[in-house]
C-alpha cells in the first residue's frame, strides 16, 4: 500500500487532531492534548503561519501526519526543520506511510536550503527508533532536552 503525501489543507484539521490525540494516547499522555481544530487552523493556516503539516493519504483516507517548523543552526548558518510530531495510524504502520512523510520532509528541507532535520523520540519507543535508524537517522548524544512552560513561562520577564 503506497501513501500519497501532500501539504495539509484547512479541511484536514479534524483528521490531524485525531492523529495528534492518537499519538498522545500512544505516548501515555492522552489528557495532555490542549489543541483544538480552531487552534490548528490558526497555527497552520494563518497568514503568518510558522508551523506546517504534511499528511499521508491512502485510498482517500488520511493515515498519517508530520507536523514541523523551521529552526536555525548558528553553526551551519542555515535553517533546519524540526519535526514536532510524526504519527501514522496503527493499522497502516509498516506500509511506507512514515517513510513517505519523511521523504516529503527531505524534499522540503532541500527546497528551503535546510542543513538538517531534527526530532525527539521517547526513550522507550523502540519501534520508532528502529524506523528512524532504518531511514538513516541517528540519536544525538551530549544534549539534554530542556523546557520552560506553565507558570514559570508566564512569569518570565515580569
Descriptive keywords:
5 strands, alpha+beta, 158 residues, Aminopeptidase, five-stranded mixed β-sheet
Write up what this structure looks like.
The chain is an alpha+beta fold and 158 residues long. The protein has one domain: Aminopeptidase, CATH 3.40.630.30. The protein is built from five helices and five strands. The chain has helices at 13-26, 37-45, 97-111, 126-134, 150-155; strands at residues 4-7, 51-58, 61-73, 78-88, 117-119. A five-stranded mixed β-sheet has the order 1-2-3-4-5, sandwiched between helices. Strand 3 (61-73) and strand 4 form a beta hairpin. The model has no long low-confidence stretch (mean pLDDT 95).
Compact summary:
By secondary structure, the protein is an alpha+beta fold. Helices cover 34% and strands 25% of the residues. The chain has 5 helices and 5 strands; from the N terminus they run βααβββαβαα.
**CA(first)-CA(last) distance:** 54 Å
Tally of alpha and pi helices = 5
* Lateral strand order in the biggest sheet: 1-2-3-4-5
Number of strands: 5
Tell me the name of the CATH homologous superfamily. Answer: Gcn5-related N-acetyltransferase (GNAT)
Topology (elements, then pairings):
Elements: E1 4-7, H1 13-26, H2 37-45, E2 51-58, E3 61-73, E4 78-88, H3 97-111, E5 117-119, H4 126-134, H5 150-155
Parallel strand pairs: 4-5
Antiparallel strand pairs: 1-2, 2-3, 3-4
Helix pairs in contact: 1-2
